[in-house]
Amino acid sequence: MNDAAPLSAAAALATRIGKYRWRVCAMLLAATTINYVDRQVLGVLAPFLQDEIGWNEIEYGYIVTAFQAAYAIGLLCAGAVIDRLGTRIGYAIAIGVWSLAAMGHALAASVLGFAFARFMLGLGEAGNFPAAIKTVAEWFPRRERALAVGIFNAGSNIGAVLAPLLVPIVAAAWGWQAAFLCTGVLSVAWLVTWLLTYRTPEEQPKLSPAELAHIRSDPPEPTARLPWRRLLRHRQAWAFVAAKFITDPVWWLFLFWLGKFLASEYELSLAKIGPPMIVVYLMADVGSVAGGWLAGRLLKRGWNVNRARKGAMLACALCVAPVALVTQIDNLWLAVALIGLAMAGHQGWSANVFTLPSDMFPRHAVASVVGIGGFAGAVGGMAMSLFTGAQLESTGSYARVFLIAGIAYLLALLVVHLLVPRLQPARLEEKPHDV
């Protein structure tokens, strides 16, 4: 009886406040899922397109790097554009561009053709996370943001699960070109729904006054626009940039090289590569939500934002560390378990890292900070892709690559803690002394 009463009270409070903001979060989840289906198609088909198109490891590294270069450029611009245009129009433009680019892969027949298609895909997909993070900052109070980010970020794993589940079936039935074309239908459906339904909280007629008050329950924030040079004067911005630069390359590694690793190390065919990749990304999905949930749970237990966020990040970093040993394992499913644990750790880490800008910056600056950090992560990813391609071409071994992956998160957490020991908000209205 004692446990039921608090639960009933919590349910009644949630009912009074309303849940429309979670419908918005569901839209972000759907967009992120589509985003990752689009980008993961190549990762699933890579071992087999390599034979058909005739690229080597270094050339595949160039194709991956083309995506990351465009993603870096796009992220550097996307945050500022979305801050200026707003999430409704900015998000619509981004998904329109990446939908056309995803379908454009079907026309590619050479290394250069795939590199161009990947470049255009990267430009469009760069808008997803700045727009989604800004939407969360607009629709959720601070105490709910890590969970909301964790939920929509789970779409990256859902998309990565759907790709190895569906792509081999579509490719076997209608050819690899059809696998790229099919993603356009999902994108168009989401785009139409977004434009018809999305409004800011103040403009949304279906939002109750109680829920709007809940969303705006944090202290008032300044609204003046800030140039990047002012944002980059603050340690808080560099903490986010450093976290993304050090750890994003590991996610790029998993995303674009996992299929090749499993196919080469365990001699998996196109028909057999799907189940291990699905297990890995299902584990990552759990990690995404769990990482956001853990931070929120620690906050409810009375921890301050600094301890809760960094405590959750430490737990996630420790989950990634054992992946350094994966090249020493002969058993496929044990290797899948280690990689899945690492990817779960990354996604939980990411849910908390993506919340850092809204912890430390006002809403109007969040998308710009996320864009700058995403640029740094993509640059790090480019370096990792070139390094991985060169390593495989010269040694045929993933050992050094996975060693780097295993230590990256603990290093990143150390750097974040040194830059922002207390995770204090940036004082944007004053001349900064924290450079």
TrEMBL record:
UniProt cross-references to CDD domains, sorted A to Z: MFS_ExuT_GudP_like
Membrane-related topology note: Multi-pass membrane protein
Top-rank lineage group of the source organism: Bacteria
Species the sequence originates in: Vulcaniibacterium tengchongense
Name of this protein: ACS family hexuronate transporter-like MFS transporter
Family under the similarity heading: Belongs to the major facilitator superfamily. Phthalate permease family.
Compartment(s): Cell inner membrane
Record-linked Pfam families: MFS_1 (PF07690)
A cellular component annotation (GO) from this entry: plasma membrane
GO molecular function: hexuronate transmembrane transporter activity
Domain Major facilitator superfamily (MFS) profile intervals: 24-424
InterPro entries given in the database record: MFS (IPR011701), MFS_dom (IPR020846), MFS_Na/Anion_cotransporter (IPR050382), MFS_trans_sf (IPR036259)
Catalysed reactions, semicolon-separated: aldehydo-D-galacturonate(out) + H(+)(out) = aldehydo-D-galacturonate(in) + H(+)(in)
Membrane-traversing stretches: 60-82, 89-108, 145-167, 173-196, 237-258, 278-299, 311-327, 333-354, 366-387, 399-420
Keywords: Cell inner membrane, Cell membrane, Membrane, Signal, Transmembrane, Transmembrane helix, Transport
